[in-house]
Fold this protein.
Amino acid sequence: MNNQAVLSILAVLTCFSFSTKTSLAERPNVIVIMTDDQGVGDFGFAGNHLVDTPNLEALYQGGTHLETFYVSPVCSPTRACLMTGRYNYRTRCIDTYLGRSMMDPSEITMAEVLGGAGYRTGIFGKWHLGDNYPLRAVDQGFEESLIHKGGGLAQPSEPRENGRRYTDPILFHNGKQIQTKGYCTDVYFDAAIDFVKKAHGANDNFFVYIPTNAPHGPFHDVPQQLYEYYKQKNFATIMARQLKAGAQQAENDKLARIFAMVTNVDQNIGRLVQTLKDLNQLDNTIVIYLNDNGPNSARYVNQHRGMKSNVLEGGIRSPLVVHWPARLKAGGVSSQVGAHIDLLPTIADACGVKLERGHHVDGISLLPALTGKKVKPVKRTLVIQSHRGNQPTLYHNFMIRQGEFKLVHPSGFGKEAFAGAPKFELYNVVADPGERENLIDRYPRIAERLQQRYVAWFEDVSSTRKDNYAPPRIVLGSEYDPIGILTRQDWRDGTWAANGNGYWLVNVESAGAYDVSIVYNASKRDESVRLEFGKAVLEVDSAAGADQVVFQGVQLVPGPQKVQATLVDGEQSRGPYQIIVSRAK
């Protein structure tokens, strides 16, 4: 365990207490598995007979599930909600890139909650809440961390030498870059299984978080044997009828690749469950499975409609399967409406960890519903909202649900704002799960009430802290992260286009001489490279074919600063791939 992880756990010990009613031997272990961009209908238990998920089917049949469970329509917001039990708008994490997928380091995570109660904590896969100190998983309560950076492999956050690989990927183990062997999902589960075995061998309780980046695109590198298997299937029954033959063939291939990744996850879950059986730990281990958002293509989503990024049900519904033989009956089902913000209080409740009164969470414990102690569901109001941009916009791409009614303004995720007045839609999602009949004119009072509740919620979450939506700053020059790597994942006011540019908001922790490496794709022409670091402005020439320059011994002063690099060729300019900042030798 690194020093920062120790400090993180010690810091939260005063915020949590372990119930004396539950002994070390009695409390459960916890495993949370969350796939990326897998839809609510991509399972055999959901009625989809075109995808093979036998191990998840076994967990589903042997555990308890919620009939209705909500997540955010895109990934980082769901991860912030899951980790903190709070709406992501409270955490500064409001988007998936350009510096807005970073979560404020003062947030208390599930790993800190359980780590503070003596659990060994490990993450294996996708963090996507910050790549630099103090935002990394190892800074936020995870003593063991094997992850990729940013939102996924094959994105600008990865080391350039990874070459967009899912197979044999370059990953980061406790903050250190390493070369791995095997398909990425297999690598995550191998490490998780090893972590479970070591914790069991030391007689320690464990919390394992396995957020895979599969089946997120791109889809060029998938398990080959499973891909060959799915290529033989005809997916026309779950594709839009209006697709032309060529488009249908392309979509067929895409689904074969996606389902290959889905089944590969399922096979790894089978290996993990077998390990728990071998260790005699399956009965008293809570295994939780969910998705982070809707599917990454228009495909089967049960009775619903919509996909990833939508606030229609197909974009924000996920299965919630909870397998815990020691406490939960096989085949159990609850009508309690749940959401991602409920997992932290539910797990804390199940593990006997009590949160202090001053620690505010938005979620509720689902344990009574899962165990069947309360037959009547808790009445509640849930809000889901996500869209692009630097801060939330009132009414933009949101839904609010209370009881059977849902008020929604599906204005689209991809824009920062919408034009004109909002066009609300009202649905009874119990009677009309496909959201086909808009009841806005029939029940105007219900719509008005839900609108007022949404506005109150928006004002509440927007006033959580001072400068509520200011992006967190990356800390450079820290002893806990001596080599700071700035990527396009976190630059501000930029794009991921090849000729795009942006800047980073950083905080230099300690003054001194630093080497600043500018990494970029080689050009066939000579360019000049300009570095702006706070008040310092430096420039050097880059010859055709070069892909990196180093500004050595740059004297940096402490405090908040802006960093930007620009490559100029005549009237054309572009930004770098990455900037690497380290202490001068």
Summary: Residues 382-461 form a domain with the Arylsulfatase, C-terminal domain fold (CATH 3.30.1120.10). The longest helix spans residues 245-278. Residues 5-23 have pLDDT under 50 and may be disordered.
